[in-house]
Give the backbone structure.
Amino acid sequence: MRHMYLYRRSLPRLMEVVYWPLLDLLVWGFITVYLAQYRQNLPGFVTFFIGALILWDILFRSHQGISVSFLEDVWAKNLLNLFTSPLNPAEYIFALMLVSVVKLVTVATIMTVLAWIIYSFNIFLIGISLVPFVLNLIVMGWAIGIVTTALILRFGQEAEVLAWALGFLFMPVSAVFYPVSVLPRFLQTVAHYVPASHVFEGMRGVLSSGVFPLSQLIWSSGLNAVYIMAAFLFFRWNFSVVKRKGLLVRIGE
Amino acid sequence: MLEPVVRVQGLTKVFKSLKAVDSVSFSIFPGEILGLLGPNGAGKTTIIHMLLGLTTQTSGSIQVFGLDLRKHRREIVQDVNFSSSYVSMPNSLTVKESLKVFARLYKTEKREKRIQELLEAFEIAGIKDKLVRHLSSGQQTRLNLAKALINDPKVLFLDEPTASLDPDIADKTRTLLRSIKKDRNISILYTSHNMKEMEEMSDRIIFLHKGQIIAEGQPEEVIRSFGRANLEEVFLKVAREEEA
């Protein structure tokens, strides 16, 4: 009975029974549809999947580099010490972005080396176009991380699960393991406005045709420019609301 | 007459329908320890948080060093610091690493020397390489106080700084704070639930109740105005009147 009461008012517990199974169903379902459709002719199967996994992890680590580093300050009850110092919120976020770069460079290096040793997969086969694509994934991860941080500041402990979960929300519509064309029409429209979907489509384009997908890169960069600006503005607005409501103190102590 | 370092006028904070702080005005003068006391929910911590810019006031003004806090927060906090027994240092760092982080944030000059002075002053030099998470609550409090002095502040806000200290360390801490105040002419806003400590430490006290100042003056003046023998009795009278 105690657990049933908790499920009624706990976001993390509700996510266990709704959010994660739904995401699993969507991602694996679309992968299955893709494999079924292209059973006879799946170009560069291993390259697509391992490359996609490494690139997705870059986005995910970029997001976590911000949100989990922020949570570490919350858990350490150190947030008030930071925000009573001359550090301003923009500098704090900028520092978290730098931390996320350090983390994801480490993770990407480890994954790239392991993929080469275990699967003889060389991600650099994608070529020079990998650089702008990876940068776009990092920026999208930052935008998600900044929004997550703002939501945790606002809603406290209950929102902490977003530090892991929010990034995954974009996975089914990012066309990580399958092309956008596999998605139903309305999700294709959603995917069109997700920068990562252009990155992964672009990567598939490079591998299958060898042509640099400039239009995908322009779409991805343009969307990211809008989203990162929007994320900063959202954080700034939210921070002032949090101060007005006295919530910074509640999460910081 | 001395100019106040902190001047608060008509400070009010409303949370939804609750008036947590109701038109409070006071000043803190150079080299003064001002004690802020009152029962739980009186508004003490909310006032400190507004003075630190962590919570925005609904109305009223806060001036520190003659500057408006809302417009000049960054300049002001360079010479202000804070310690609370409810706030910790980064628990995955060592004592010395934690102090180094804050010395950089406050752009402290001669960082190594300053950190060494503070480690010795608070008797934590022997544990400088210990992780914060492995410190006792007394050691953590002393580290918090060391951090609060890292920038050699002119104004210090201390929210129940001795709450988790044993009597010996608490007494040493009070002695140290008094000596710092005397040597550096530092101004301190002090809250504590230990009324004996408030009497001993404060040059002047402000007694808050339901967000309003109900008494102000030197401790003995406040005690006299309530017709009681000490601050503890004053506190109990106010708290129990509320219950009744």
User: Anything to note?
Assistant: Residues 45-252 of chain A form one domain. Chain A touches chain B at residues 72-73, 75-78, 80-88, 240, 243-246, 248-249, 252-253 (CB under 8 Å).
